[in-house]
UniProtKB/TrEMBL annotation, chain A:
<dbReference type="InterPro" id="IPR003593">
    <property type="entry name" value="AAA+_ATPase"/>
</dbReference>
<protein>
    <submittedName>
        <fullName>Fe-S cluster assembly ATPase SufC</fullName>
    </submittedName>
</protein>
<keyword id="KW-0067">ATP-binding</keyword>
<feature type="domain" description="ABC transporter">
    <location>
        <begin position="2"/>
        <end position="246"/>
    </location>
</feature>
<dbReference type="InterPro" id="IPR010230">
    <property type="entry name" value="FeS-cluster_ATPase_SufC"/>
</dbReference>
<keyword id="KW-0547">Nucleotide-binding</keyword>
<dbReference type="InterPro" id="IPR027417">
    <property type="entry name" value="P-loop_NTPase"/>
</dbReference>
<dbReference type="Pfam" id="PF00005">
    <property type="entry name" value="ABC_tran"/>
</dbReference>
<comment type="similarity">
    <text>Belongs to the ABC transporter superfamily. Ycf16 family.</text>
</comment>
Automatic annotation (TrEMBL), chain B:
<dbReference type="InterPro" id="IPR055346">
    <property type="entry name" value="Fe-S_cluster_assembly_SufBD"/>
</dbReference>
<feature type="domain" description="SUF system FeS cluster assembly SufBD core">
    <location>
        <begin position="156"/>
        <end position="383"/>
    </location>
</feature>
<comment type="similarity">
    <text>Belongs to the iron-sulfur cluster assembly SufBD family.</text>
</comment>
<dbReference type="InterPro" id="IPR045595">
    <property type="entry name" value="SufBD_N"/>
</dbReference>
<feature type="domain" description="SUF system FeS cluster assembly SufBD N-terminal">
    <location>
        <begin position="12"/>
        <end position="144"/>
    </location>
</feature>
<dbReference type="Pfam" id="PF19295">
    <property type="entry name" value="SufBD_N"/>
</dbReference>
<dbReference type="Pfam" id="PF01458">
    <property type="entry name" value="SUFBD_core"/>
</dbReference>
<protein>
    <submittedName>
        <fullName>Fe-S cluster assembly protein SufD</fullName>
    </submittedName>
</protein>
<dbReference type="InterPro" id="IPR011542">
    <property type="entry name" value="SUF_FeS_clus_asmbl_SufD"/>
</dbReference>
């Protein structure tokens, strides 16, 4: 589904990704872990198309297409979804209006008829159940004055509505208490299917108790320095990142 | 000079004094501090008809249903239909004769008129003007709708003037629908309103300005508030070649609430200037000013917001905010907040921002599949809608929203 080859990216003069290689198949969950500043969030941003980053080398193929050639909105229409670490507040635009615009723009891209108000109502009701989110929250200005937990649940609600092929969760656990974490993780798990894939970017192992990965990769200084299965995450939790980093020096 | 023809107009003594004041100063130029961005020097090159006898075409009452419909057509005031209970309309001299106490107060009103020569011109040329008198305790079920329409076939300077007197405990909603026809020749529309809001009275005032490119409109709206009164003012400047708003609030009593809301969306070759004054003269009052602008094409906007807190006005709360979005790299916005605080126990704040739409917000929206153009439009409409949504008359809100949305969408090509 996703094939990243020798990906280099920089912001300004600073090179942050220095040769990432990663293959992800449908049905898989991959966790990207690593210490602060290792490039985890940059990788998520580059995949979603944030324009602050310049890709200097390498390729990203998504379902047979050159992902780097597409605008952020085209990537979304092709099935890429980024759950933001810091969801942006949009005053004056409600979640429901935001999602209606998004869904119908994506449908237009795919050559499908727009949904009408009744169809939206039915769909939203169904998707709200995934993250136990309230209608009143969806009528309010998007993310404005939302608590940390509400913002992240809203991200997963949006993910449920857009039903992506590839979901990238960027530090979705940051700022969440344990109850909110569980609700968010359950939402993600319900959305998992054999035809989609998930990348979980996280600093801590905690989230991986709830969203169990098939593969764990450790990112350090812009490269994947170690890959393994979910046991690797437990080992990191126990020993920290130092043992991997010091092994690199040797 | 265009003003040469004014010299020969014969006027009474007081009116001549006003004319002399105007002639001594002439039209404002950008050498005057208050008109730094808004020179009207070019008006000197036009051979003005100072007293139009034309009647506008398309004069129609607006779609807003009112308890009372009023019109100022090329400066001529008329009442459409009958007067509701509790409202009287009469000439200023007749009103003055019946209200000597008010006149005593009125003569001491002490407006801030420096560098406002067009007020003098209006004063000189309006030999008589009407008073709309809302009697004590009157609550009208529907708004008073005043339509000001200008439409001429030769270049004309049009003077309009109204005094609105809202007595104790009355509740009034006033819709001020200002327009000029797009086919009209050059217009200078010079409009003065004095609004007196007596003790415990409430006024909601919604002014919409929708003028042609060849129209210069200068608006002087002076609001005098007495104790325990509340005024919610809205100024929607939708279209106009040159629009200058002078909106003054004089807080002459305690426990007064003054809310000033403004929205301007100038487009190509348009200039919209909002000069506001809130003059806190008595203690324990509050003013909230929220202005927003979207500047399209090569337009220019000005916001100049003055707040005075006089030595007597202790415990004043005065807040001001002006936020602008430049929708084009050819648009210009000039902002100048000015606070003069003479009392020591007050809460005042001001803030102005002018910028592009947030890149973070645009990326967030695009990452959900919304195209860049659609995301920009959505953000701008949300930005302006927050002011429009405060209007509580549904059909008026819709009419303003439709005109503003259409203008923004057209400018952005969506």
């Amino acid at each position: 589904m996703l094939s990243i080859k020798n990906l280099h990216a920089r912001i300004g003069e600073k090179e942050i990704l220095r040769g990432i290689n990663l293959e992800i198949k449908a049905g898989e969950v991959h966790a990207i872990m690593g210490p602060n500043g290792s490039g985890k969030s940059t990788l998520a941003s580059v995949l979603a198309g944030r324009e602050d980053y310049e890709v200097t080398e390498g390729s990203v193929e998504f379902q047979g297409k050159d992902l780097l050639d597409l605008a952020p909105e085209e990537r979304a229409a092709e099935g890429v979804f980024l759950a933001f670490q810091y969801p942006v507040e949009i005053p004056g635009v409600s979640t429901t209006n935001f999602m209606k615009s998004a869904v119908n723009e994506i449908r237009k891209y795919r050559g499908e008829e727009p949904l009408d108000a009744v169809q939206f109502l039915k769909m939203f009701k169904e998707k709200m159940a995934y993250v136990n989110i309230d209608q009143s929250l969806l009528s309010r200005s998007l993310n404005e004055g939302f608590s940390g937990g509400e913002k992240k649940r809203n991200e997963i609600f949006q993910m449920a509505v857009l039903d992506p092929k590839l979901a990238i969760l960027d530090e979705t656990d940051s700022g969440l208490d344990i109850d909110a974490l569980r609700i968010v993780a359950e939402g993600v798990n319900k959305l998992k299917s054999p035809t989609n894939a998930t990348i979980v970017v996280t600093h801590y192992q905690r989230l991986l108790d709830y969203i169990v990965p098939d593969f764990v990769h450790v990112l350090y200084k812009g490269r994947i320095v170690k890959s393994g299965t979910k046991e690797l995450a437990l080992e990191l939790e126990e020993k920290g990142y130092d043992w991997i980093i010091s092994a690199l020096v040797d | 000079m265009a003003t040469d023809t004014l010299v020969s107009i014969s006027l009474g003594k007081e009116k001549q004094a006003a004319m002399d004041r105007f002639l001594a100063k002439g039209f404002p130029t950008n050498k005057w501090e208050e008109w730094k961005y808004a020179s009207l020097k070019s008006l000197n090159d036009i051979d003005w008809n100072w007293n139009s006898s034309e009647t506008p075409t398309n004069a129609s009452s607006t779609s807003i249903e009112g308890s009372l419909q009023l019109q100022s057509l090329n400066g001529k005031f008329t009442t459409v239909g009958s007067l509701p209970n509790g409202v009287e309309i009469l000439e200023f001299s007749a009103f003055a004769a019946q209200n000597p106490d008010f006149i005593t107060k009125w003569e001491k009103r002490n407006q801030i008129l420096d560098q406002n020569s067009l007020y003098d011109l209006n004063d000189a040329l309006t030999t008589t003007h009407q008073v709309i008198w809302v009697k004590a305790g009157t609550t009208l079920p529907q708004p008073i709708v005043h339509q000001l329409l200008a439409d001429v076939s030769i270049a004309s300077a049009i003077q309009s003037k109204l005094l609105i007197y809202i007595e104790k405990g009355a509740n009034v909603t006033w819709v001020d629908d200002l327009r000029s026809n797009s086919s009209s020749e050059t217009i200078l529309s010079n409009y003065v309103q004095e609004i007196w809001v007596e003790e415990s009275a409430n006024l909601t005032f919604v002014k919409t300005q929708d003028f042609a490119l060849k129209t210069t409109h200068v608006d002087h709206t002076f609001i005098f508030q007495q104790a325990n009164s509340q005024v919610d003012m809205f100024t929607f400047s939708i279209n106009g070649g040159f629009v200058r708003n002078n909106l003054h609030f004089y807080v002459d009593g305690e426990n007064v609430l003054s809310n000033l809301n403004g929205l301007y969306v100038p487009g190509n070759n348009e200039f919209i200037d909002s000069h506001t004054v809130v003059d806190h003269r008595k203690p324990n009052s509050e003013s909230n000013e929220l202005y927003k602008g979207v500047l399209l094409g090569n337009s220019t906007g000005v916001f100049n917001g003055k707040i005075f807190v006089r030595p007597d006005a202790q415990k004043t709360n005065a807040f001001q905010s002006c936020k602008n979005v430049l929708a084009s790299d050819k648009a210009t916005m000039n902002t100048k907040p000015q606070l003069e605080i003479w009392a020591d126990d007050v809460k005042c704040s001001h803030g102005t921002t002018t910028g592009q739409l947030s890149d973070e917000a645009l990326f967030y929206m695009r990452s959900r599949g919304i195209s860049e153009e659609a995301a920009k439009t959505l953000l701008m409409l949300a930005f302006v809608q927050q002011v429009i949504d405060k209007v509580e008359i549904p059909e008026l809100k819709e009419s303003i929203s439709d005109r503003v949305v259409a203008k923004i969408q057209q400018a952005l090509g969506v």
